[in-house]
Design a protein that fits this description.
alpha+beta; three-stranded antiparallel sheet; 150 residues; 9 strands
Length: 150
């Protein structure tokens, strides 16, 4: 079973390098392990990533305004509509991958002025709350991987 998350934004980042720079600037230890000059609008499929020594990659694809409309039409919880013209769809499986997606999605929302929507929790949060969510998720996943109660 795969899980999903989404970032709705009015613009996209251009390259993996720009995304990685935004991740680094916020102090997260997630590394997107593809060429920095790869264009985000060309992503379709697995984006490898490493978080604290764990494989944390995910499937992702950037969609346009039509994809945003389709998503919003199918998902009442994602309201309000807002100025969104881009959607980054993220799918993942695995514990460490949850940390990867929370960090990558929150940072992408932060860098683009968008919102992060966790499809499993049904919670849509603005960019600042998404960063806090990613930090908490990172702590929770670290605890789980180290065998501590969450």
């Amino acid at each position: 079973m795969s899980l999903s998350a989404f970032v709705l934004s009015a613009r996209s980042l251009e390259t993996i390098g720009a995304w990685q720079a935004a991740i680094d600037a916020l102090g997260f230890k997630l590394t997107l392990t593809v060429e920095a000059d790869q264009r985000i609008d060309a992503l379709s499929g697995h984006l490898p990533a490493v978080w604290e020594g764990h494989e944390a990659g995910f499937e992702c694809e950037l969609g346009d305004a039509g994809a945003v409309e389709n998503f919003l039409d199918d998902c009442d919880e994602a309201q309000p509509r807002g100025p969104w013209s881009q959607i980054l769809e993220i799918y993942y499986v695995g514990i460490a991958n949850i940390a990867g997606v929370a960090i990558a999605g929150a940072v992408y929302a932060h860098a683009t002025g968008g919102v992060f929507w966790n499809g499993e929790d049904g919670e849509r949060v603005d960019a600042e709350r998404a960063i806090a969510y990613a930090r908490k998720t990172e702590t929770d996943i670290r605890d789980m991987l180290e065998g501590r109660q969450v």
